[in-house]
Amino acid sequence: MDSNFIKECITELRLQKGISEYQMSYDLGHSRGYIYNISSGKCLPPMNEFLAICDYFGITPSEFFNENLKNPGLIQKAIDGMEKLSDEDLLLILNLINRLLKMNSHDE
């Protein structure tokens, strides 16, 4: 893992959210080229800005650096929703996940 990972991950998260570099820079309170400079590798965000970027995407720093998560923002939204469900509904979702995993393993 290196600085390329950080800039690529920020770019991927931004694209998943469907937001431009300019819009993200503006949303974070910076000049229009701020995210471009990070995405192009000209600079890396300082720690406080990195934390603001994670917050912007609704993920934790741990989720940001977890290379196994394909869409950490979407996963976090699912978790947030599931926290509000009953145990019975959670079991239904778990059964559905297991069923989908079995179907996908047969396709491989």
Structure description:
- By secondary structure, this protein is mainly alpha-helical.
- The chain has a single domain, classed as lambda repressor-like DNA-binding domains (434 Repressor (Amino-terminal Domain)), CATH 1.10.260.40.
- The protein has seven helices and no strands.
Briefly say what this structure is.
This protein has one domain: lambda repressor-like DNA-binding domains (434 Repressor (Amino-terminal Domain)), CATH 1.10.260.40.
Question: What's the topology here?
Answer:
Elements: H1 3-17, H2 21-27, H3 34-39, H4 47-57, H5 61-65, H6 72-82, H7 87-107
CATH architecture: Orthogonal Bundle
Question: What is the SS-derived class?
Answer: mainly alpha
Give the total of beta strands: 0
Query: How many strands, what sense, and barrel or not for the largest sheet?
Result: none
What are its keywords?
mainly alpha; 108 residues; single chain
